[in-house]
Amino acid sequence: MAEFIKSERNIRKLLAEKTYNLRELACINEISEIISLGKSIDETLQNIVYKIPESLENPENFGVTIIYNKKDYKSSDFSQRDDFAKSSKYSIFSKFVTIDDTRGKVILYNLHEPGRDKIFGHEEERFLSSVSSLITEYINSFRARQVLKSPDKKQADAAN
Asked: Is the sign of the CA dihedral 121, 127, 131, 133 positive or negative?
């Protein structure tokens, strides 16, 4: 009987991990779709920040901020609890640097006072790192397209 209970716990744990992985993958796919729309950096980052909490088990307990180019993009309902989030020790982040050497950061906050449970694990850190990579690739691509479309570039090409 004890072996069965242990086995059932393992199955539940594995199921929970796989469910989290599916939510994470769905969020990465949705972020890729947002990026593929080719909107402005401001609009794209704001839309991305809304999606990130959805990948977590209790999205209402989390807030996200993307800091880039001296601007903050925040998830919905986050501003109401902004003071708590800024003072919260329950956060993780992933930094990124774009091709023009502009630095940014994706921060995930737990907006709920947690118990003694571990708040963030390796999975969340890996997820934020993946999101940061997608953002970096998007911004680099966006900036490269701007350079290629600039009048100075066209004049230089015409001169050659």
From this structure: positive
Cα separation, 73 vs 66, in Å, equals 5
Cβ-contact 63, 81 below 8 angstroms? yes
pTM: 0.79
Residue 47 to residue 19: CA distance in whole angstroms:
23
Q: Which amino acid is at 79?
A: S
Q: Along the 160 residues of the chain, how does pLDDT read in single tens digits?
A: 556 566 777 777 777 676 767 888 899 999 999 999 999 999 999 999 999 988 887 888 888 999 999 999 998 766 555 555 555 568 899 999 999 999 999 999 887 766 655 578 788 899 999 999 999 999 999 999 998 888 765 554 544 4
Distances (CA, A) of 91 to 61, 72, 94: 12, 16, 11
Residue 75 contacts residue 53 (beta carbons within 8 Å):
yes
Chain Cα centroid distance, residue 81: 19
* Helix, strand, coil % over all residues of the chain, rounded to 5: 60, 15, 20
